[in-house]
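Technical annex B. To support the medicinal chemistry partners, we prepared a structural model of the target in complex with adenosine-5'-diphosphate, based solely on the information shown next.
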Amino acid sequence: MKNKILKILDASQDYISGEDISDKCGISRTAIWKHINTLKEEGYQIDSQPRVGYKLLKRPDALLDIEILTGLDTIKWGKEELYTFEEIDSTNIYAKKLASTGKPEGTVVVAEEQTLGKGRLGRKWESPRGKGIWLSFILRPPILPAQAPKITFVVAVGMVRALKKALNIEAKIKWPNDILINKKKVCGILTEISAEIERINYIVVGIGVNAQQNIEDFPPEFRDKATSLKIASSQKVSRVKILQCILEEMEYTYNFYLNKGFAGIINLWREYSITLGEEIKVITHEEEIFGTAIDVADDCCLLVKDESGRIHKIIAGDVSLRKANGEYA
Ligand code: ADP
């Protein structure tokens, strides 16, 4: 009912009386008044004039179902199953629960705040309220578990495309799972998989995008390595619009991968990469390697050539780029 009232307000150019809304909805004027108050609490600016009626002045940039769905141009993603939360432990944890009960591909979970947001290897992902886009989605790709790292590449490519579409920003991919703007992290991707030996049950992809933070909103130790879309574009951004672009580009890129294969994706990944061609340091669980990142292999491993000319194939590790002053960051 609340959504119906919102649609009526949205469609009306001018003030519309409580009586008209009540006729259209078939509920009492008092009930309308209550719903309007709820909408105001959610951040909708609605002016009410005695004997004249109500007028919608401004929609909030809040990650509410109706806001996300209004104008969302996907085929399936977010449209069939969308779960939004004010606060959640972690959107990935919730999406994994949904996936294990059989929810379909394209199911989306979004929260205004995560209290237990995670990066790789259980590292904390800061997800303050209202400042970012903290989302997860379920995938069920018909591929072997060994191919799963390709999904992180698909998502990273989708993310770069989404930021280009939403804000005309040229973001870069840092192997394996970070999206950077001006060499600072704006977005992290966490891919989690549930699989048997020969079959993937599901993949849950978590994406955390810093959107509205000012630099002082980041913990001091992040300030030289993190950024937000607001900082990068010097303007307040619409989280709803960015989320819509993410879902649209993600669905497109994922379907492109399923239908056309990985070659096109990996080529785009190379184009968007900040890692390739750079002098880097890689810390793996076994060793520390210094060298030049020369390419990524078809299985998503990073190929690093060290000083002696030996090529190391990195399956997993932490990469830092050599800066002009010789330090690695
Ligand atoms: P990395 O691959 O860079 O280690 P992860 O994907 O593991 O990154 O993400 C976790 C790390 O990212 C944390 O240890 C922290 O350094 C950093 N981090 C946490 N929250 C944020 C955030 N909101 N924005 C940018 N960086 C963050």
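Notes passed to the chemistry partners:
The pocket of adenosine-5'-diphosphate is lined by residues 119-120, 123-126, 177-178, 185, 188, 208, 210, 222, 226, 318 (CB under 6 Å).
The longest strand covers residues 184-195.
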